[in-house]
Design goal:
By secondary structure, this protein is mainly alpha-helical. The protein has helices spanning 18-24, 29-38, 42-58, 69-78, 91-104, 111-125, 132-145, 153-178, 181-188, 201-205, 214-228, 242-253, 257-261, 265-333, 337-350, 354-368, 376-380, 384-393, 404-414, 434-440, 453-470, 491-494, 498-505, 511-532, 561-571, 577-588, 607-620, 623-631, 635-645, 651-662; strands at 396-398, 422-424, 441-443, 449-452, 473-475, 539-541, 547-549. The two termini are 27 Å apart.
C-alpha cells in the first residue's frame, strides 16, 4: 500500500494548533445560518456544525470517533454551548445529515462516478509519473475540482496500482515491439558477468560520476563513446515522456541483475533501454559539468598568475626598459642600415630572443589593462587535447541567431593540428569582449591582422563555458544543458492566453501600452529616488552616474554580551546532531518524502531509524561508516540502504524536503 504520508490526502492533525483551529474550524455566519435552518436542538446543531467544518477541511466524512477532541471543544466554545453538551451523532442522524450536507455543498457523492473521475486523472498522470503517491495526488486534485466526495484512501490506492500497472504494461509492450531480436540479445548480455571479473556490464553503466580531473574527464569521454557504440536507444523509447524514462531508469539502477532476470522480457528490456538512454544523457551532462569546472580552474589560475606578476612587474618593466635602451643605443652607434639591423638582432638574442621579450611585454600590458586572458595559455597546454575531445564528441549548437561562437569552434577544430603560431584573421570575434579581442588580434606588417592561435583557442573554450551556463549554447541529447526552447509553449497556444495573463498581472495587453506603462513606472521610480536622495546618506553616486552603497558601520557590542553567551552555553545542554535531525523530523515530518522507490510503506521494522540515519550521514559522515557503526549493517544491507529503505538523495528529493521545511 502507498504511504499516505507521501500524498496530500487530507487527514486530521495529531495535535491541532490554536491557529489551525481558529482559521479552519471556526464557523462562519453562512455556516451558522445553514445549520440553524437544518437542525433543531442544540445537540443536533452542534453535530451538524462539526460535520460541516470537518468536511470543509477533509472533503470526505470520516469516522466520528476519529474527530479530535480539541476540534469539538473549539466549535463548542465558538457556538457558546454548555461544556457538558454531547453532539447527537447517532447512525440515523448521520445518514440524514450527510444527505443535507451533500445537497448544501452541491457534491457528487456517487462512488462509481468518483472512481471513474479518479481513474481518468490517474491514467493521464501515469503517462509522466510513476510513484503511486503522485497518481493519488493528481486524482485528489481532479476530484476536488469536480466537487466529488473523496473516496477512501484504500480505494484510491487500489485504483492507482491498477492504472499504473496498465499504463506501464502498455509502455513495456510498445518498447519491446521496437527492439529487434539481435538487439534483445545484446541488451540481455548486459546482465551477464564479464569473463575477467565478477561484475556485469550493467554495473559499469551504473558507475557514479567522479571528480572533475583531466583523467576522469577522459574516462567519461570514453564512457560516452562506449555508450553510443550500443546504438541509438532513443527510437526504443520514442513517445515515452522523459520523466517516465528517468523513473524507469532509476528503478533499473536500483536493482540487481538477478532481480531484472525475474521480470518478464518486455519489462526487463524496457528498463534496460531506459537505463541506457538515461545513462547517455547523464554522461553528457557530467562531461559538460567537468568541462565547466576545468575552465573555471584555468581561469582562477590565470587570475592568480596575474596577481603574482603584479609583484614582479617592476623587475620585468626595468628589464624591458634596459633592452629598449640597448636597442636605441645599437641603432645610434650603427654606421649603416645593415649594421644597425645586425646590432639590434644581437641585443635581442642576448636578452632571450624576440618571443621571450614579446611574452614579457604581454605580461606587463595585461597587468596595466587588468587582463588575465593572456595567462590562460600558460596552463592550457595540459588541457588542450581533452578540451578538443569535448567539443568534437558533443553536439553543441547555438540557441540564438548568433552563430559566431559555433563558427569559431569549427575554425579551431579545422586548425587543431596546424603547427603555425599565427592564423590569418578571417573570423568574426563579436562573440567575445574587447579584452579577449586585444589578446587575440595581432597586426603585422602592411596592416594585415592575424590571430594568436593559442589565445584564440583559450578564448573559444572560455566563451563556450560562459554560454553553456547562460543557455546560449545547448548540447543535443543532454538534460541539464538541453535547448530551453523545446520546453516553451508554441506561440499559437500562448497568444489566446495573453490578455488574461496581462490582466492578472495588471499589465497592458498591447505592445504600445506595455511600453507606455513601463516608461511611466520608471519615471515615477526615478522621481521618487530624486526626492529621497538628499536624505539617504548611505547611497553614493560617482562622476559616471554609477550608484553604490556605503558600508554600514558596525554597531557597538552591547554590554554583557559575552556574559550572556557564557550563561547560555552553561544552561543549554549539548545535543548530538542525530538528535537534532530526529527532533526536526518529528516536528516537520520531512521523512515522508523519503522511502522505497515503489512508493509503498517500508517493510523494514526499523525503516524510520534507518531513513533518519541516512539523512544525517549524507551530510556529515560517509553513509557506509555511519550506518555500519549505528546498525551493524552487512555489505548487502548497505547496498540496499539507498534503494529498499530510502530513495537515493537526488535534486528532486532535496527540493521537496526544502519546500516542505519552508512551508
Amino acid at each position: 500500500m502507498a504511504s499516505i504520508e507521501r500524498t496530500v490526502y487530507p487527514r486530521f492533525t495529531r495535535a491541532p494548533s490554536v491557529k489551525e483551529l481558529r482559521e479552519i474550524y471556526t464557523p462562519t455566519p453562512t455556516d451558522v445560518a445553514f445549520v440553524a435552518t437544518k437542525a433543531r436542538g442544540p445537540a443536533q446543531k452542534f453535530a451538524l456544525m462539526i460535520l460541516l467544518k470537518v468536511y470543509q477541511r477533509l472533503h470526505y466524512f470520516p469516522d466520528p470517533q476519529s474527530i479530535p477532541g480539541a476540534l469539538i471543544s473549539h466549535i463548542r466554545a465558538v457556538m457558546n454551548l454548555p461544556n457538558d453538551l454531547v453532539p447527537d451523532i447517532s447512525p440515523a442522524t448521520l445518514y440524514r445529515y450527510y444527505g443535507v450536507l451533500r445537497e448544501h455543498l452541491e457534491l457528487n457523492s456517487q462512488g462509481k462516478h468518483a472512481r471513474h473521475v479518479a481513474a481518468q486523472a490517474m491514467h493521464a498522470a501515469a503517462q509522466v509519473m510513476e510513484n503511486p503517491a503522485d497518481l493519488i495526488n493528481a486524482a485528489i486534485e481532479t476530484l476536488l475540482v469536480a466537487h466529488c466526495e473523496l473516496p477512501a484512501f484504500s480505494t484510491l490506492d487500489r485504483i492507482a496500482w491498477r492504472i499504473r500497472r496498465l499504463v506501464n504494461r502498455g509502455i513495456y509492450q510498445r518498447v519491446f515491439a521496437r527492439i529487434a531480436e539481435a538487439e534483445q540479445q545484446a541488451l540481455s548480455r548486459l546482465l551477464e558477468p564479464d569473463e575477467s571479473s565478477p561484475f556485469t556490464t550493467l554495473d559499469r553503466i551504473k558507475d557514479a560520476p567522479k571528480s572533475a580531473t583531466l583523467t576522469h574527464l577522459d574516462e567519461w569521454l570514453n564512457r560516452l563513446s562506449w555508450l553510443q557504440s550500443w546504438g541509438t536507444t532513443e527510437r526504443f523509447v520514442e513517445g515515452v515522456r522523459s520523466s517516465k524514462i528517468t523513473r524507469l531508469a532509476q528503478e533499473a539502477r536500483s536493482l540487481y541483475p538477478s532481480d531484472l532476470l525475474d521480470f518478464s522480457a518486455p519489462r526487463r528490456l524496457t528498463l534496460l533501454a531506459c537505463l541506457l538512454s538515461q545513462a547517455t544523457v547523464s554522461t553528457k551532462d557530467e562531461i559538460i559539468q567537468m568541462f565547466l569546472k576545468r575552465m573555471s580552474k584555468l581561469t582562477e589560475k590565470a587570475k592568480q598568475e596575474l596577481l603574482r606578476l603584479r609583484e614582479e612587474e617592476r623587475a620585468i618593466t626595468e628589464h624591458l626598459i634596459e633592452v629598449f635602451a640597448d636597442v636605441v643605443q645599437a641603432s645610434t652607434d650603427a654606421q649603416d642600415p645593415t649594421d644597425r639591423g645586425m646590432h639590434i638582432r644581437e641585443v635581442l638574442d642576448r636578452e632571450g630572443g624576440e618571443m621571450s621579450l614579446l611574452e614579457q611585454c604581454e605580461q606587463v600590458s595585461a597587468h596595466h589593462g587588468d587582463r588575465y586572458q593572456p595567462f590562460l595559455k600558460k596552463f592550457y597546454g595540459s588541457h588542450r587535447k581533452a578540451l578538443f575531445r569535448v567539443i568534437k564528441t558533443l553536439d553543441l549548437r547555438s540557441t540564438t541567431s548568433d552563430q559566431t561562437l559555433v563558427d569559431a569552434m569549427n575554425f579551431i577544430m579545422a586548425n587543431e593540428h596546424n603547427p603555425k603560431q599565427y592564423l590569418e584573421a578571417t573570423l568574426d570575434l563579436s562573440f567575445t569582449n574587447k579584452k579577449w579581442q586585444r589578446t587575440i588580434l595581432l597586426v603585422k606588417h602592411k596592416g594585415k591582422s592575424w590571430f594568436r592561435r593559442q589565445h584564440l583557442e583559450t578564448c573559444v573554450f572560455s566563451s563556450l563555458s560562459d554560454e553553456l551556463k547562460t543557455g546560449d549554447i545547448c548540447c543535443l541529447g543532454s538534460e541539464q544543458f538541453a535547448d530551453y526552447r523545446n520546453q516553451l509553449l508554441p506561440w499559437s497556444e500562448c497568444e489566446p492566453k495573453v490578455a488574461a495573463y496581462c490582466h492578472q498581472l495588471g499589465l497592458p495587453a498591447t505592445a504600445e501600452g506595455l511600453v507606455l506603462h513601463l516608461r511611466t513606472w520608471l519615471t515615477e521610480i526615478a522621481a521618487e529616488v530624486d526626492r529621497t536622495r538628499p536624505g539617504n546618506q548611505e547611497l553614493m553616486i560617482n562622476e559616471k552616474g554609477e550608484p553604490s552603497l556605503k558600508k554600514l558601520k558596525a554597531k557597538a557590542q552591547p554590554a554583557g554580551l559575552l556574559e550572556l553567551e557564557e550563561a547560555l552555553h552553561a544552561k543549554i545542554p549539548e545535543r548530538h546532531l542525530l538528535d537534532v535531525v530526529v527532533r526536526i523530523e518529528r516536528l516537520t515530518g520531512f521523512g515522508r518524502h523519503l522511502g522505497p522507490l515503489s512508493g509503498n510503506e517500508p517493510k523494514a521494522d526499523d525503516a524510520w531509524e534507518k531513513v533518519l540515519s541516512l539523512a544525517w550521514s549524507y551530510q556529515y559522515l560517509t553513509a557506509k561508516l555511519s550506518l555500519q557503526n549505528t546498525f551493524k549493517f552487512t555489505h548487502h544491507n548497505l547496498k540496499l540502504s539507498g534503494t529498499a529503505i530510502c530513495v537515493p538523495f537526488s535534486r528532486e528529493h532535496i527540493t521537496k524536503i526544502i519546500a516542505h521545511l519552508c512551508s
